[in-house]
Amino acid sequence: MSTYDDRLKALREELARRKLDGFVVPLTDEHMSEYVGAYAQRLAWLTGFQGSAGSAVVLPAEAAIFVDGRYTLQVREQVSAKHWSYQSVPQTSTAQWLEQHAPDGGRIGYDPWLHTKGWVTAAQKALASKGAELVAVDTNPVDTVWPDRPAPSAARLVVQPDELTGKSSAAKRADVADWLTAKKADAAVLSALDSIAWAFNVRGKDVDRTPVALAYAIVHADATADLYVAPDKIDEHVAQHLGNGVRVHDRRDFEPALKRMEGKTVAVDPERAVAAIFEALQAGGATLIEERDPVVLPKAIKNDVEMAGHRAAQARDGAALSRFLHWLSVEARDGRIDELTASDRLQAFRAETGLLKDLSFDTISGAGPNGAVVHYRASEETNRRLEPNSLYLVDSGGQYQDGTTDVTRTVAIGTPTAEMRDRYTRVLKGHVAIARAVFPKGTRGGQLDILARQYLWAVGLDYAHGTGHGVGAYLSVHEGPQRIATFGGGDEPLQPGMILSNEPGYYKTGEYGIRIENLILTVDHPIEGAEKEMLGFETLTFAPYDRSLIDVSLLDAGELAWIDAYHVRVRAIVGPQLDGQAAAWLATATAPLLESAPAQA
Question: Strand pairing partners for 413?
Fold first, then answer.
């Protein structure tokens, strides 16, 4: 299994043994997670693709890999075109592709623990037109041919204390119980890992970059719950924290428990629960109601304690990033620094806070043309130096116990071209437009997306990703249901307490990438005499923008004032955490835009 060709051949041989004419390989786990543990990295093992979203279909004579616009360049660099055709999502889907390519009367396999009920229905409908059949497998054939597949993590759960959550686990379960009573249901299944972590005020180390533990839960209308997790992962401290209202079971007992719920009315989330959960409940005689996971919205609307924690984490993280940007201004002048060295140094600055638990995702450290790969990850094979007169894009974040951060800055190494400055300033104008937005309560994120794109659209440019995603409280860096996007979501009404990213960009293939990202908190924005409740955003992230990339002639008075005021706040929040040359550099970096900048430190 030393090559990806060998792995594809082995899978095809295994499918033939099982009398299957194809198999679908998604990048997810039994919890429909975006980021997954090493044991669930089936797509990466099979194809070489290292992105965080994608899927593949393997047929006897052809195979296809499906990615969205964030990975258009990356998939071509990492996955061989010799055996794989590249498919773009949402322009097509695995189900649509199967409708065109599956053999007539064929048997296409899928793992019911890795797909939603909705996907199964769509795939069955697509295959029916070919007289083909969708076949659930008992064991995943990729696992069968993966000889050194890692075992799931054995790390223990840890308690997330009430002083950081702002609400006890018992109170959260009581809220779910009230919701169940209103829905006339007996129980709700929680299968999303961040929902379980939030509802039970626990965290884990089972998924890189996301502090969650592999578990399932069933919460009942009497506010008690059953938690299904490997027994060795619960120590006495966690057991005491969970209390008598939570019954702990082996994770392997989850499916049998679902089959024992005869006569119960059970709420299940069709977006977050896999098809196997629905099948087990139906086999057991339960009555199902399809409802969104009752934890999703409360988790997204941060309480006062969570907001305070986020502000503290962002201030700490902003200082670490500013130290890095100062270091970069000194060390990157002569082209000696490369992408891996830079990302390692940034992580070290975060670690020096003494409070970093993990990164919130693998740092995107892209020099020159690598910056145009939206979700680029530097490796020894792709590592580039930060060359003079080029752009460097760094998208990074930290996991702190009081908050999760995510921030992108684009930096000129040397002297930028006029085109670079034009594109950067247009991205910045869109970024500022989102930050300054005022909108009626009930507005959806998708309605705001055009604010960020308008200045790029004006000259025939765009970017192939959403403008903003939700962010958790020491949880997932990508958290729903809120988004700022016109595709793939964005239809959730924004509410006070929701945190989103604000990250428009521009990418010139083969040359450079630009992205500017802060986190923003949705807040009330009262207006005297207003006839509607109005909302706006509070910016949470504080680190300077690159003044050398800003074409002031493209900014209006309001944008100039906002950027200068933002930089004043950066000095106020980050400045006291810096000293020496770093503090002097920050004063230069945050000087008013219409003032001549002092010499660099």
Answer: 390
